[in-house]
Amino acid sequence: MEERPEGKRLYDILRAGDVLVVRRIDQLGRNYDDVKEAVQEFMRRGVIVRTIINNMTFDSSTKDPMQMAIRDALIGFMAAAAQSRAEVTKPAQIAGIAHARRLVGDKRYKGRKPSFSEGQLTHVLTLLEQKAGVSTIAKVTGLGRQSIYRIIDDPAGARASLIEWGICSPTIA
């Protein structure tokens, strides 16, 4: 979680005594180890983690070894359930995308709809040539940092996505 920009930001913002509310515990990582380590790191920092779906609270306030063992077992169980759910969902997602790609016309799968316009893409690329930082580009263009990172990673793919969605003309280079 710490290696993702928003995850790092979360670690930077939260302090001892803060409460982190998540819908489900699996939002804190991509697999068992990520989720377990994230919850334990937040508890080490004195952050309280609360889940909405099953109304659980994880904190480091207890010093009783039995309660700590139960808490840690629950974290492990929930992290394992999250990974299991992700592993079951992935093949269904892949099959759904494959099916959608076989469709024709307007029902054909086009990928994720871009969150930026042709003008914003051009502006981002211009600012990148001028060596502007991601934060500056985000402020100037009104785009999120993640959108800018996607453009940086694949500018041609970003333009192709705009064309695929009919947001920009294929004749404009």
Give the SSE string: HEHEEHHHHH
3D shape: flat
Q: How would a crystallographer describe the biggest sheet?
A: 3 strands, mixed
Name the strands of the widest sheet in spatial order.
1-2-3
Helix coverage percent of residues?
55-70%
Calculate the mean pLDDT score and round it. Answer: 87
Query: Which residues form runs of ≥5 with pLDDT under 50?
Result: none
Keywords for this entry:
single chain, 173 residues, mainly alpha, Rossmann fold, three-stranded mixed beta sheet
What would you say this structure looks like, in words?
The chain starts with a helix and ends in a 9-residue tail after the last helix. It folds into 2 domains: 98 residues, Rossmann fold (3-Layer(aba) Sandwich), CATH 3.40.50; 47 residues, no CATH class. The mean pLDDT is 87. Strands 1-2-3 form a 3-stranded mixed beta sheet, with helices on one face. β2 and β3 form a beta hairpin. The chain is mainly alpha-helical and 173 residues long. It has 7 helices and 3 strands, in the order αβαββααααα.
Provide a quick synopsis of the model.
With 173 residues, the chain is mainly α.
Question: SSE layout and pairings?
Answer:
Elements: H1 5-13, E1 19-22, H2 32-44, E2 48-51, E3 57-58, H3 65-102, H4 118-129, H5 134-141, H6 145-153, H7 155-164
Helix pairs in contact: 2-3, 6-7
